[in-house]
Design goal:
Tetrahydropterin Synthase, Chain A, three-stranded antiparallel beta sheet
Length: about 160
């Protein structure tokens, strides 16, 4: 029994998003607020004994829905010693390395991660996509593996995988 995989390249379908973030005590300038353009690629794999894994169009929609809430936002970590205080439509954020920021609430997304690294962001996106696949009205019984590639710019990225 072999392996069959399908994939969708988010760079071609609008699953691109632009964010600002920082990584506490990371060095190399990453501890300053800076931005990236991210793209995702998603692969679904199963046995080559099936004729059809999942509709491309539905997969494309799931990918776009997963990245849309992050686009043009400041991503902040909700763990690892970072603290966010919400009041009057603003967020006061104290990072793990004691830097203090204030943002309008609508400009940020607070992620359940220790730090907003490419690795943590890829894991978070994969968890969101797996959740959407599990809730899908379309059968996922033949999907054995899901792999997400998160491109940070055009020359580097992270690959994470999971199962339904």
């Amino acid at each position: 029994m072999g392996r069959l995989a399908i994939f969708v390249d988010g760079r071609r379908i609008g699953a691109r998003f632009h964010v600002a973030h920082r990584i506490s005590v990371a060095g190399h300038g990453l501890d300053r607020l800076h931005g990236h353009t991210y793209d995702i690629r998603l692969s679904l794999a199963g046995s080559d004994q099936v004729a059809f894994l999942y509709p491309f169009e539905a997969l494309m929609q799931i990918m776009v829905e997963a990245v849309e809430p992050l686009d043009n936002k400041v991503l902040l970590a909700d763990g690892g010693g970072n603290v966010a205080k919400f009041e009057n439509g603003t967020v006061t954020y104290v990072s793990a390395d004691e830097r203090r920021y204030m943002f309008p609430r609508d400009d940020i997304v607070l992620l359940p991660v220790r730090e907003v690294t490419a690795e943590a962001l890829a894991d978070y996106l994969l968890s969101q996509i797996l959740l959407k696949l599990r809730k899908s009205a379309i059968s996922t019984k033949d999907i054995a593996e899901v792999e997400l590639t998160l491109w940070e710019g055009s020359e580097r990225g992270v690959v994470v995988g999971g199962t339904l």
